[in-house]
Amino acid sequence: MQVGEGFAGSGPDAAHVNTVLGPKDGPVGTAWATALATPRTGHVPFVVVLRPNLAVKPMTLFVNKAAVSPADDRHARLTWGAAQAGVAAGVLDAVRDGVIPPDATETLLLITAVWVDPAANEEESVYENNREATRAALAAGRDGRPSIADLLATGEPENPFFRS
């Protein structure tokens, strides 16, 4: 199993993607099927498609980290539209680049946990940032990044929402 994290962009259109990639017949397969079968209010996991009726491979599950409200059509469209398309492109970039071996795409499943800020508003930025963050998360998972040495040498925690 490979676990990765990727962040791209800035402001409300930034993307934060977590990935879990593993064999269909292992714990990732169980988690994938369970998540797909257990939606809850505001969080409806779905299969990522390149186009309708054309699911990406490895089969990828999109799990939204920010609840989508039926009352917020803009956020819903960015989540199910631009962000989902960006994840699809990022997965295929990773296959094209060999981050995910093309001959393994039938035996693996991918879970993506994707943050789309409810304040996001620029469709192309959401798309590009999710594409980049997905590709980066998959590469980090493959490479086992970050190393513990890198983490210990980095210093105090900080992120776009907090600085110590």
Q: What would a concise description of this structure say?
A:
By secondary structure, the chain is an alpha+beta fold. The protein has helices at residues 27-37, 73-96, 123-143, 148-154, and strands spanning 2-8, 15-23, 46-47, 49-51, 54-55, 59-64, 108-115, 158-159, 162-163. It is globular.
Question: What report would you give on this structure?
Answer:
By secondary structure, the protein is α+β, with helices and mostly antiparallel strands. It has 4 helices and 9 strands, in the order E-E-H-E-E-E-E-H-E-H-H-E-E. A 5-stranded mixed beta sheet has the order 1-2-7-6-3, sandwiched between helices. Strands 4-5 form a two-stranded antiparallel ribbon. The longest helix has 24 residues. The termini are far apart.
Q: Termini separation (Å)?
A: 33 Å
Number of helices: 4
Helix/strand order? EEHEEEEHEHHEE
Give the fraction of residues assigned to helices. Answer: 25-40%
